[in-house]
Design goal:
With 496 residues, the protein is an alpha+beta fold. The protein contains 14 helices and twelve strands. Helices cover 42% and strands 11% of the residues. The protein starts with a helix and ends in a 35-residue tail after the last helix. The C terminus is likely disordered.
Length: 496
Protein backbone atom coordinates (compact mmCIF):
# COMPACT_ATOMS: atom_id res chain seq x y z
CA UNK A 1 0.00 0.00 0.00
CA UNK A 2 1.41 3.37 -1.00
CA UNK A 3 1.74 6.42 1.14
CA UNK A 4 -1.16 8.14 -0.61
CA UNK A 5 -3.52 5.20 -0.01
CA UNK A 6 -2.59 5.10 3.67
CA UNK A 7 -3.28 8.84 3.89
CA UNK A 8 -6.73 8.40 2.27
CA UNK A 9 -7.68 5.64 4.67
CA UNK A 10 -6.50 7.67 7.60
CA UNK A 11 -8.71 10.53 6.45
CA UNK A 12 -11.75 8.23 6.29
CA UNK A 13 -12.13 8.25 2.52
CA UNK A 14 -11.35 4.63 1.71
CA UNK A 15 -13.73 1.75 0.96
CA UNK A 16 -14.15 0.94 4.66
CA UNK A 17 -15.36 4.47 5.38
CA UNK A 18 -17.81 4.31 2.48
CA UNK A 19 -19.27 1.05 3.77
CA UNK A 20 -19.64 2.61 7.22
CA UNK A 21 -21.65 5.46 5.80
CA UNK A 22 -23.99 3.03 4.01
CA UNK A 23 -24.98 1.14 7.12
CA UNK A 24 -28.62 1.16 6.01
CA UNK A 25 -27.67 -1.01 3.02
CA UNK A 26 -26.06 -3.76 5.11
CA UNK A 27 -27.61 -7.23 5.48
CA UNK A 28 -26.22 -8.18 8.84
CA UNK A 29 -28.11 -9.65 11.76
CA UNK A 30 -30.13 -6.58 12.73
CA UNK A 31 -31.23 -5.76 9.17
CA UNK A 32 -31.50 -9.24 7.70
CA UNK A 33 -35.31 -9.23 7.78
CA UNK A 34 -35.66 -5.75 6.35
CA UNK A 35 -36.06 -6.25 2.60
CA UNK A 36 -38.68 -3.81 1.26
CA UNK A 37 -39.41 -3.98 -2.47
CA UNK A 38 -38.26 -1.05 -4.58
CA UNK A 39 -41.67 -0.29 -6.08
CA UNK A 40 -42.96 2.90 -7.62
CA UNK A 41 -45.55 4.79 -5.64
CA UNK A 42 -48.11 4.33 -8.42
CA UNK A 43 -47.79 0.55 -8.07
CA UNK A 44 -48.40 0.83 -4.32
CA UNK A 45 -51.40 3.09 -4.82
CA UNK A 46 -52.92 0.85 -7.50
CA UNK A 47 -52.58 -2.30 -5.38
CA UNK A 48 -53.45 -0.95 -1.93
CA UNK A 49 -55.45 2.16 -2.74
CA UNK A 50 -59.00 0.78 -2.33
CA UNK A 51 -58.34 -0.91 1.01
CA UNK A 52 -56.35 2.06 2.31
CA UNK A 53 -59.17 4.39 1.32
CA UNK A 54 -61.84 2.23 2.97
CA UNK A 55 -59.88 2.02 6.22
CA UNK A 56 -59.19 5.76 6.22
CA UNK A 57 -62.87 6.62 5.80
CA UNK A 58 -63.92 4.26 8.59
CA UNK A 59 -61.21 5.58 10.90
CA UNK A 60 -62.26 9.21 10.49
CA UNK A 61 -65.88 8.27 11.21
CA UNK A 62 -65.29 5.99 14.22
CA UNK A 63 -62.12 7.33 15.85
CA UNK A 64 -62.41 10.55 17.84
CA UNK A 65 -58.78 11.58 17.41
CA UNK A 66 -58.89 11.03 13.64
CA UNK A 67 -62.16 12.97 13.33
CA UNK A 68 -60.76 15.86 15.36
CA UNK A 69 -57.53 15.87 13.34
CA UNK A 70 -59.53 15.94 10.09
CA UNK A 71 -61.51 19.00 11.17
CA UNK A 72 -58.34 20.73 12.43
CA UNK A 73 -56.60 20.04 9.13
CA UNK A 74 -59.48 21.47 7.08
CA UNK A 75 -60.06 24.51 9.29
CA UNK A 76 -56.39 25.48 9.22
CA UNK A 77 -56.06 24.75 5.51
CA UNK A 78 -58.91 26.91 4.21
CA UNK A 79 -60.65 28.40 7.26
CA UNK A 80 -63.46 30.60 6.01
CA UNK A 81 -62.03 30.52 2.50
CA UNK A 82 -59.02 31.32 0.33
CA UNK A 83 -60.28 34.42 -1.45
CA UNK A 84 -59.18 36.16 -4.66
CA UNK A 85 -57.86 39.68 -4.99
CA UNK A 86 -57.88 40.67 -8.67
CA UNK A 87 -54.80 42.45 -10.03
CA UNK A 88 -56.60 44.15 -12.94
CA UNK A 89 -55.21 47.66 -13.43
CA UNK A 90 -58.56 49.31 -14.15
CA UNK A 91 -60.04 50.05 -10.71
CA UNK A 92 -63.63 50.15 -11.96
CA UNK A 93 -63.38 46.88 -13.85
CA UNK A 94 -61.57 45.27 -10.94
CA UNK A 95 -64.38 46.27 -8.59
CA UNK A 96 -67.06 44.87 -10.95
CA UNK A 97 -65.16 41.57 -11.26
CA UNK A 98 -64.80 41.25 -7.50
CA UNK A 99 -68.48 41.99 -6.87
CA UNK A 100 -69.64 39.52 -9.53
CA UNK A 101 -67.35 36.83 -8.10
CA UNK A 102 -68.70 37.41 -4.60
CA UNK A 103 -72.27 37.04 -5.83
CA UNK A 104 -71.42 33.92 -7.87
CA UNK A 105 -69.80 32.09 -4.94
CA UNK A 106 -73.27 31.47 -3.48
CA UNK A 107 -74.24 29.58 -6.68
CA UNK A 108 -70.99 27.67 -7.21
CA UNK A 109 -72.05 24.36 -5.67
CA UNK A 110 -73.84 22.09 -8.15
CA UNK A 111 -75.58 20.33 -5.23
CA UNK A 112 -76.72 23.64 -3.71
CA UNK A 113 -75.50 22.70 -0.22
CA UNK A 114 -72.79 25.31 0.35
CA UNK A 115 -70.89 28.10 -1.39
CA UNK A 116 -67.51 28.13 -3.12
CA UNK A 117 -65.61 28.45 0.14
CA UNK A 118 -67.58 25.59 1.65
CA UNK A 119 -66.46 23.52 -1.34
CA UNK A 120 -62.86 24.41 -0.45
CA UNK A 121 -63.42 22.99 3.05
CA UNK A 122 -64.90 19.79 1.60
CA UNK A 123 -61.89 19.44 -0.69
CA UNK A 124 -59.54 19.86 2.29
CA UNK A 125 -61.37 17.13 4.23
CA UNK A 126 -61.19 14.79 1.25
CA UNK A 127 -57.45 15.45 1.01
CA UNK A 128 -57.08 14.38 4.64
CA UNK A 129 -59.23 11.26 4.33
CA UNK A 130 -58.69 10.10 0.74
CA UNK A 131 -55.63 12.10 -0.25
CA UNK A 132 -57.40 13.50 -3.31
CA UNK A 133 -60.61 15.00 -4.58
CA UNK A 134 -62.02 15.58 -8.06
CA UNK A 135 -63.87 18.74 -9.05
CA UNK A 136 -65.88 18.66 -12.24
CA UNK A 137 -66.69 22.04 -13.80
CA UNK A 138 -70.27 21.91 -15.08
CA UNK A 139 -71.34 24.53 -17.66
CA UNK A 140 -75.02 25.50 -17.34
CA UNK A 141 -77.62 26.85 -19.72
CA UNK A 142 -78.60 30.50 -19.76
CA UNK A 143 -82.17 29.58 -18.75
CA UNK A 144 -80.88 28.11 -15.47
CA UNK A 145 -80.83 31.65 -14.11
CA UNK A 146 -77.26 31.72 -12.75
CA UNK A 147 -75.23 34.91 -12.63
CA UNK A 148 -72.40 33.06 -14.39
CA UNK A 149 -73.53 29.75 -15.97
CA UNK A 150 -70.89 27.60 -14.27
CA UNK A 151 -71.01 25.30 -11.25
CA UNK A 152 -68.68 22.90 -9.43
CA UNK A 153 -69.41 19.24 -8.70
CA UNK A 154 -67.27 17.39 -6.16
CA UNK A 155 -66.47 13.72 -6.85
CA UNK A 156 -64.92 11.38 -4.29
CA UNK A 157 -61.83 9.29 -4.94
CA UNK A 158 -63.92 6.12 -5.27
CA UNK A 159 -65.58 7.52 -8.38
CA UNK A 160 -62.33 6.98 -10.31
CA UNK A 161 -61.53 3.23 -10.26
CA UNK A 162 -57.98 2.30 -9.28
CA UNK A 163 -58.24 -0.96 -11.19
CA UNK A 164 -59.03 0.65 -14.56
CA UNK A 165 -55.62 0.33 -16.22
CA UNK A 166 -54.80 -0.59 -19.80
CA UNK A 167 -54.88 0.69 -23.38
CA UNK A 168 -57.71 2.97 -24.48
CA UNK A 169 -59.63 2.54 -27.73
CA UNK A 170 -57.95 5.61 -29.22
CA UNK A 171 -54.44 4.31 -28.51
CA UNK A 172 -53.87 6.28 -25.30
CA UNK A 173 -52.96 4.71 -21.97
CA UNK A 174 -55.30 4.47 -18.98
CA UNK A 175 -53.61 4.31 -15.59
CA UNK A 176 -55.73 4.07 -12.42
CA UNK A 177 -58.68 5.60 -14.28
CA UNK A 178 -56.72 8.49 -15.82
CA UNK A 179 -56.15 8.60 -19.58
CA UNK A 180 -52.78 9.86 -20.82
CA UNK A 181 -51.71 10.68 -24.35
CA UNK A 182 -48.44 9.71 -26.03
CA UNK A 183 -46.41 12.46 -24.34
CA UNK A 184 -47.87 11.90 -20.86
CA UNK A 185 -50.52 14.62 -20.72
CA UNK A 186 -53.83 13.96 -18.99
CA UNK A 187 -56.57 14.00 -21.58
CA UNK A 188 -59.53 12.36 -19.81
CA UNK A 189 -60.84 10.77 -16.62
CA UNK A 190 -62.97 7.61 -16.64
CA UNK A 191 -65.43 8.14 -13.79
CA UNK A 192 -68.00 5.69 -12.53
CA UNK A 193 -71.59 6.71 -13.12
CA UNK A 194 -72.44 6.03 -9.48
CA UNK A 195 -70.58 5.50 -6.24
CA UNK A 196 -69.66 1.82 -5.75
CA UNK A 197 -70.60 1.92 -2.07
CA UNK A 198 -73.91 3.78 -2.40
CA UNK A 199 -76.70 1.22 -2.03
CA UNK A 200 -79.37 3.89 -2.50
CA UNK A 201 -78.38 4.48 -6.12
CA UNK A 202 -79.63 1.47 -8.06
CA UNK A 203 -79.41 2.85 -11.58
CA UNK A 204 -77.05 0.11 -12.67
CA UNK A 205 -76.04 -3.20 -11.14
CA UNK A 206 -72.33 -2.66 -11.85
CA UNK A 207 -71.21 0.97 -12.03
CA UNK A 208 -70.19 1.82 -15.56
CA UNK A 209 -67.62 4.45 -16.41
CA UNK A 210 -67.97 7.57 -18.48
CA UNK A 211 -65.12 9.45 -20.16
CA UNK A 212 -64.84 13.09 -19.06
CA UNK A 213 -62.32 15.42 -20.78
CA UNK A 214 -59.49 16.53 -18.55
CA UNK A 215 -60.24 20.18 -19.35
CA UNK A 216 -63.44 19.85 -17.28
CA UNK A 217 -61.86 18.07 -14.31
CA UNK A 218 -59.60 19.30 -11.53
CA UNK A 219 -57.62 16.64 -9.69
CA UNK A 220 -56.71 18.03 -6.25
CA UNK A 221 -54.00 16.09 -4.43
CA UNK A 222 -50.58 16.53 -2.90
CA UNK A 223 -47.88 14.84 -5.00
CA UNK A 224 -45.21 13.54 -2.64
CA UNK A 225 -43.17 11.63 -5.25
CA UNK A 226 -42.16 12.53 -8.79
CA UNK A 227 -44.53 11.00 -11.33
CA UNK A 228 -47.28 10.27 -8.79
CA UNK A 229 -50.69 10.15 -10.49
CA UNK A 230 -53.09 9.49 -7.56
CA UNK A 231 -53.16 10.85 -4.03
CA UNK A 232 -52.47 9.10 -0.74
CA UNK A 233 -54.60 9.75 2.39
CA UNK A 234 -53.03 12.31 4.68
CA UNK A 235 -54.04 10.11 7.61
CA UNK A 236 -52.20 7.08 6.16
CA UNK A 237 -48.98 7.30 8.27
CA UNK A 238 -51.00 7.31 11.51
CA UNK A 239 -53.71 4.79 10.60
CA UNK A 240 -52.20 1.72 12.28
CA UNK A 241 -51.37 3.51 15.54
CA UNK A 242 -54.80 5.11 15.73
CA UNK A 243 -56.57 1.80 15.06
CA UNK A 244 -54.55 -0.17 17.62
CA UNK A 245 -54.79 2.58 20.24
CA UNK A 246 -58.55 2.66 19.80
CA UNK A 247 -58.72 -1.11 20.31
CA UNK A 248 -56.53 -0.84 23.39
CA UNK A 249 -58.74 1.85 24.90
CA UNK A 250 -61.89 -0.18 24.19
CA UNK A 251 -60.38 -3.29 25.78
CA UNK A 252 -59.30 -1.31 28.84
CA UNK A 253 -62.74 0.23 29.16
CA UNK A 254 -64.44 -3.18 28.92
CA UNK A 255 -62.05 -4.62 31.49
CA UNK A 256 -62.84 -1.86 33.97
CA UNK A 257 -66.56 -2.19 33.29
CA UNK A 258 -66.52 -5.95 33.84
CA UNK A 259 -64.47 -5.63 36.99
CA UNK A 260 -66.80 -2.98 38.39
CA UNK A 261 -69.82 -5.28 37.99
CA UNK A 262 -68.51 -7.69 40.63
CA UNK A 263 -68.77 -6.06 44.06
CA UNK A 264 -67.80 -9.18 46.01
CA UNK A 265 -67.79 -12.98 46.26
CA UNK A 266 -69.44 -15.08 49.00
CA UNK A 267 -68.06 -18.42 50.09
CA UNK A 268 -70.26 -20.88 52.04
CA UNK A 269 -69.76 -24.42 53.23
CA UNK A 270 -73.19 -25.79 52.28
CA UNK A 271 -74.31 -24.87 48.75
CA UNK A 272 -77.97 -25.52 49.59
CA UNK A 273 -78.04 -22.93 52.37
CA UNK A 274 -79.35 -19.48 51.40
CA UNK A 275 -76.82 -16.65 51.20
CA UNK A 276 -77.14 -13.34 52.92
CA UNK A 277 -79.34 -11.00 50.92
CA UNK A 278 -80.02 -13.73 48.36
CA UNK A 279 -82.85 -13.06 45.90
CA UNK A 280 -84.91 -15.45 43.84
CA UNK A 281 -82.91 -17.35 41.18
CA UNK A 282 -82.89 -16.01 37.63
CA UNK A 283 -84.27 -17.94 34.66
CA UNK A 284 -80.92 -19.67 34.29
CA UNK A 285 -80.92 -20.65 37.99
CA UNK A 286 -78.30 -18.10 39.08
CA UNK A 287 -78.88 -16.55 42.48
CA UNK A 288 -77.70 -12.98 43.09
CA UNK A 289 -77.10 -11.50 46.52
CA UNK A 290 -77.75 -7.81 47.02
CA UNK A 291 -77.35 -5.40 49.91
CA UNK A 292 -79.28 -2.30 50.90
CA UNK A 293 -77.83 0.88 52.45
CA UNK A 294 -77.23 0.51 56.18
CA UNK A 295 -77.43 -3.29 56.17
CA UNK A 296 -75.97 -5.05 59.21
CA UNK A 297 -75.55 -8.64 58.13
CA UNK A 298 -74.64 -11.51 60.45
CA UNK A 299 -72.75 -14.25 58.63
CA UNK A 300 -73.65 -17.86 59.20
CA UNK A 301 -71.01 -20.31 60.34
CA UNK A 302 -68.70 -21.10 57.42
CA UNK A 303 -69.67 -18.08 55.30
CA UNK A 304 -67.01 -15.64 54.14
CA UNK A 305 -67.16 -12.47 52.02
CA UNK A 306 -64.36 -11.24 49.79
CA UNK A 307 -64.90 -7.88 48.11
CA UNK A 308 -63.68 -7.28 44.58
CA UNK A 309 -60.59 -5.09 44.18
CA UNK A 310 -60.01 -4.85 40.43
CA UNK A 311 -56.54 -3.93 39.24
CA UNK A 312 -56.01 -0.35 38.18
CA UNK A 313 -54.66 0.67 34.77
CA UNK A 314 -51.35 1.49 36.40
CA UNK A 315 -49.20 4.57 36.48
CA UNK A 316 -47.84 4.02 32.98
CA UNK A 317 -51.20 4.34 31.22
CA UNK A 318 -51.15 8.13 30.96
CA UNK A 319 -47.51 8.25 29.82
CA UNK A 320 -48.16 5.53 27.24
CA UNK A 321 -51.17 7.40 25.87
CA UNK A 322 -49.24 10.65 25.71
CA UNK A 323 -46.27 9.17 23.83
CA UNK A 324 -48.50 7.27 21.43
CA UNK A 325 -50.56 10.34 20.62
CA UNK A 326 -47.37 12.35 20.17
CA UNK A 327 -46.29 9.83 17.55
CA UNK A 328 -49.74 10.04 15.93
CA UNK A 329 -49.55 13.84 15.83
CA UNK A 330 -46.09 13.74 14.29
CA UNK A 331 -47.33 11.27 11.66
CA UNK A 332 -50.24 13.56 10.80
CA UNK A 333 -48.08 16.68 10.76
CA UNK A 334 -50.45 18.36 13.23
CA UNK A 335 -49.68 19.88 16.64
CA UNK A 336 -50.47 17.62 19.57
CA UNK A 337 -53.11 19.94 21.04
CA UNK A 338 -55.00 20.12 17.72
CA UNK A 339 -55.28 16.32 17.56
CA UNK A 340 -56.14 15.68 21.22
CA UNK A 341 -57.45 19.00 22.53
CA UNK A 342 -55.02 18.60 25.45
CA UNK A 343 -53.29 21.87 26.40
CA UNK A 344 -52.36 20.98 30.00
CA UNK A 345 -48.63 21.00 29.31
CA UNK A 346 -48.71 23.90 26.87
CA UNK A 347 -47.60 27.47 27.38
CA UNK A 348 -47.22 30.52 25.15
CA UNK A 349 -43.73 29.62 23.95
CA UNK A 350 -44.44 25.97 23.22
CA UNK A 351 -47.73 26.70 21.44
CA UNK A 352 -46.17 29.39 19.29
CA UNK A 353 -43.13 27.25 18.42
CA UNK A 354 -45.21 24.35 17.14
CA UNK A 355 -47.74 26.61 15.41
CA UNK A 356 -45.02 28.43 13.46
CA UNK A 357 -43.73 25.17 11.98
CA UNK A 358 -47.22 23.80 11.39
CA UNK A 359 -48.33 26.94 9.57
CA UNK A 360 -45.31 26.80 7.30
CA UNK A 361 -46.52 23.39 6.16
CA UNK A 362 -50.08 24.64 5.79
CA UNK A 363 -48.97 27.62 3.71
CA UNK A 364 -47.07 25.25 1.44
CA UNK A 365 -50.27 23.28 0.81
CA UNK A 366 -52.38 26.42 0.47
CA UNK A 367 -50.26 27.92 -2.28
CA UNK A 368 -48.98 24.75 -3.96
CA UNK A 369 -52.15 22.66 -3.92
CA UNK A 370 -55.37 24.53 -3.09
CA UNK A 371 -54.59 27.80 -4.86
CA UNK A 372 -52.67 26.25 -7.77
CA UNK A 373 -54.77 23.16 -8.49
CA UNK A 374 -58.23 24.39 -7.45
CA UNK A 375 -58.62 28.17 -7.27
CA UNK A 376 -56.63 29.37 -10.28
CA UNK A 377 -58.24 27.06 -12.89
CA UNK A 378 -61.70 27.89 -11.57
CA UNK A 379 -60.94 31.61 -11.70
CA UNK A 380 -59.77 31.32 -15.32
CA UNK A 381 -62.83 29.28 -16.37
CA UNK A 382 -65.15 31.63 -14.47
CA UNK A 383 -63.73 34.70 -16.25
CA UNK A 384 -64.08 33.00 -19.62
CA UNK A 385 -67.66 31.92 -18.90
CA UNK A 386 -68.60 35.36 -17.59
CA UNK A 387 -67.19 36.95 -20.74
CA UNK A 388 -69.15 34.59 -23.00
CA UNK A 389 -72.33 35.12 -20.97
CA UNK A 390 -72.04 38.90 -21.33
CA UNK A 391 -71.54 39.50 -17.61
CA UNK A 392 -68.01 40.83 -18.07
CA UNK A 393 -66.38 43.03 -20.68
CA UNK A 394 -62.69 42.13 -20.60
CA UNK A 395 -60.51 43.87 -23.16
CA UNK A 396 -57.58 41.59 -22.26
CA UNK A 397 -58.85 38.26 -20.84
CA UNK A 398 -55.31 36.98 -20.31
CA UNK A 399 -54.34 39.98 -18.17
CA UNK A 400 -57.59 39.62 -16.22
CA UNK A 401 -56.44 36.21 -15.00
CA UNK A 402 -53.80 37.85 -12.82
CA UNK A 403 -55.05 37.32 -9.30
CA UNK A 404 -53.67 36.94 -5.81
CA UNK A 405 -55.27 34.36 -3.54
CA UNK A 406 -55.47 35.48 0.08
CA UNK A 407 -55.50 32.68 2.67
CA UNK A 408 -57.44 33.07 5.94
CA UNK A 409 -55.82 34.97 8.77
CA UNK A 410 -53.92 33.23 11.52
CA UNK A 411 -55.17 33.76 15.07
CA UNK A 412 -52.07 33.85 17.25
CA UNK A 413 -51.76 33.08 20.93
CA UNK A 414 -51.08 36.76 21.76
CA UNK A 415 -52.53 38.94 18.96
CA UNK A 416 -51.53 42.21 20.68
CA UNK A 417 -47.83 41.46 20.35
CA UNK A 418 -48.23 40.45 16.72
CA UNK A 419 -50.12 43.62 15.81
CA UNK A 420 -47.50 45.74 17.54
CA UNK A 421 -44.78 43.90 15.61
CA UNK A 422 -46.64 44.49 12.33
CA UNK A 423 -46.97 48.21 13.05
CA UNK A 424 -43.25 48.46 13.81
CA UNK A 425 -42.45 46.58 10.59
CA UNK A 426 -44.57 49.00 8.53
CA UNK A 427 -43.02 52.03 10.18
CA UNK A 428 -39.53 50.67 9.49
CA UNK A 429 -40.40 49.98 5.85
CA UNK A 430 -39.79 46.24 6.22
CA UNK A 431 -43.25 45.38 4.91
CA UNK A 432 -46.15 47.16 3.26
CA UNK A 433 -49.59 47.86 4.60
CA UNK A 434 -51.08 45.75 1.79
CA UNK A 435 -49.20 42.67 2.95
CA UNK A 436 -50.17 43.27 6.58
CA UNK A 437 -53.85 43.61 5.69
CA UNK A 438 -53.78 40.57 3.41
CA UNK A 439 -52.20 38.56 6.24
CA UNK A 440 -55.45 39.10 8.12
CA UNK A 441 -57.37 37.47 5.27
CA UNK A 442 -58.88 40.64 3.79
CA UNK A 443 -58.41 42.61 0.58
CA UNK A 444 -56.64 45.90 1.27
CA UNK A 445 -58.75 47.80 -1.27
CA UNK A 446 -61.96 46.53 0.33
CA UNK A 447 -60.66 47.62 3.74
CA UNK A 448 -59.76 51.05 2.39
CA UNK A 449 -63.21 51.50 0.86
CA UNK A 450 -64.85 50.55 4.13
CA UNK A 451 -62.59 52.93 6.07
CA UNK A 452 -63.39 55.76 3.65
CA UNK A 453 -67.13 55.10 3.93
CA UNK A 454 -66.91 54.96 7.74
CA UNK A 455 -64.91 58.21 7.84
CA UNK A 456 -67.44 59.98 5.61
CA UNK A 457 -70.38 58.77 7.69
CA UNK A 458 -68.70 59.79 10.95
CA UNK A 459 -67.94 63.26 9.56
CA UNK A 460 -71.52 63.74 8.30
CA UNK A 461 -73.00 62.76 11.65
CA UNK A 462 -70.50 64.78 13.64
CA UNK A 463 -69.38 61.79 15.67
CA UNK A 464 -66.08 61.40 17.43
CA UNK A 465 -64.55 58.17 18.69
CA UNK A 466 -61.33 57.36 20.45
CA UNK A 467 -60.05 55.92 17.14
CA UNK A 468 -61.97 57.46 14.29
CA UNK A 469 -61.69 56.18 10.70
CA UNK A 470 -59.10 58.16 8.80
CA UNK A 471 -57.09 58.97 11.90
CA UNK A 472 -55.25 55.69 12.24
CA UNK A 473 -51.48 55.47 12.26
CA UNK A 474 -51.34 54.54 8.58
CA UNK A 475 -53.76 57.21 7.32
CA UNK A 476 -52.86 60.26 9.43
CA UNK A 477 -51.55 63.17 7.38
CA UNK A 478 -48.35 64.92 8.36
CA UNK A 479 -49.31 68.03 10.40
CA UNK A 480 -48.15 71.40 9.17
CA UNK A 481 -45.50 73.13 11.23
CA UNK A 482 -47.00 76.07 13.11
CA UNK A 483 -44.88 79.23 13.44
CA UNK A 484 -43.26 79.76 16.79
CA UNK A 485 -43.45 83.30 18.17
CA UNK A 486 -39.80 82.97 19.07
CA UNK A 487 -38.93 82.36 15.42
CA UNK A 488 -38.28 85.02 12.85
CA UNK A 489 -40.36 85.81 9.80
CA UNK A 490 -38.40 83.35 7.71
CA UNK A 491 -39.09 80.49 10.12
CA UNK A 492 -35.64 80.44 11.68
CA UNK A 493 -35.17 80.80 15.39
CA UNK A 494 -33.80 84.02 16.74
CA UNK A 495 -30.79 82.11 18.03
CA UNK A 496 -29.73 80.92 14.55
Amino acid sequence: MGLFDRFRRSRGRGPAAVRARLEGAMSKRRLRGWNPPLENINTLVASGGPKLLARARELVVTNGYAANACEAFASNMVGDGIKPSSLIDDAGLRDRVQRLWLAWTDEADADGLTDFYGLQAMVAREMFVAGECFVRMRPRRAEDGLLVPLQMQLLQSEMLPFEKTGPAANGNRIRCGIEFDAIGRRVAYHFRRSHPGDSTDQRVAVPETVRVPAADVLHIYRPIDAGQIRGLPHVAPAMVRLFLLDQYDDAELDRKKTAAMFAGFITKTAPEDPMMGETEPDLDGTAIASLEPGTMQVLLPGEDVKFSSPADVGGGYEAFQYRTLLAVSASLGLPYHLVTGDVRQANYSSLRAELVEFRRRVQQLQHGVIAHQLCRPIWARWLETGQLAGRLDLADPVAARMVQWIPPRWDWVDPLKDIQAQVLAMEAGITSRRKVVEATGYDVEEVDRENAADAARVADLGLRYRTSPGETQGARATPEKRPNPADGADGRTTQE
